[in-house]
Specification:
Distance between the termini: 28 Å
Number of helices: 4
CATH architecture: 3-Layer(aba) Sandwich
Largest sheet: 6 strands, mixed
Helix content: 25-40%
Number of strands: 6
Strand content: 25-35%
Structural class: alpha/beta
Order of helices and strands: HEEEHEHEEH
Length: 139
């Protein structure tokens, strides 16, 4: 936990990242609906659609959720603020096709890539288009 902030909720981290992305002019959306669930954060990096699942604990659950995002995103990440990313987590993330992000507390860009995500081979064009359409609206 950062010495600069009290214990924050998962949603507080998502909103913090979302606001910083928007301030930087990055098309983004928090709690984006996808097949009856929601993606914590979606944003465009150039032409690439990035999805991010945030978890404060239970990285296994976070990886399962992030893995499901591969149907909509080009690159899928798990972000665990204030957590050390163990070797076990890294190995599991590689197997799941999910990248890992470290949350940056006081920087313009909220993330550091700890493990690059591979491009999803499971992306459904229609789902990706729906997520991209959400980015054209304020959310």
């Amino acid at each position: 936990m950062s010495k600069h902030s009290p214990r924050r909720t998962e949603q507080a981290f998502v909103l913090d990242a979302y606001k910083r992305l928007r301030r930087s002019g990055v098309p983004s959306r928090w709690e984006a609906p996808m097949l009856g669930r929601s993606v914590d954060l979606v944003y465009l990096d150039g032409e690439d659609l990035i999805t991010v699942e945030f978890k404060l604990s239970d990285w296994r659950r976070g990886l399962r959720q992030a893995r499901d995002h591969r149907i909509g995103g080009d690159f899928v990440y798990l972000c665990m603020p204030n957590r050390r990313l163990s070797q076990e987590l890294r190995i599991a993330a590689i197997a799941a096709g999910v990248g890992l992000l470290r949350f940056r507390e006081e920087a313009e860009w909220p993330f550091v890539i700890e493990l690059p995500a591979p491009r999803s081979t499971m992306t459904w064009t229609v789902m990706r288009q729906k997520l991209c359409a959400l980015l054209r609206t304020r959310g």
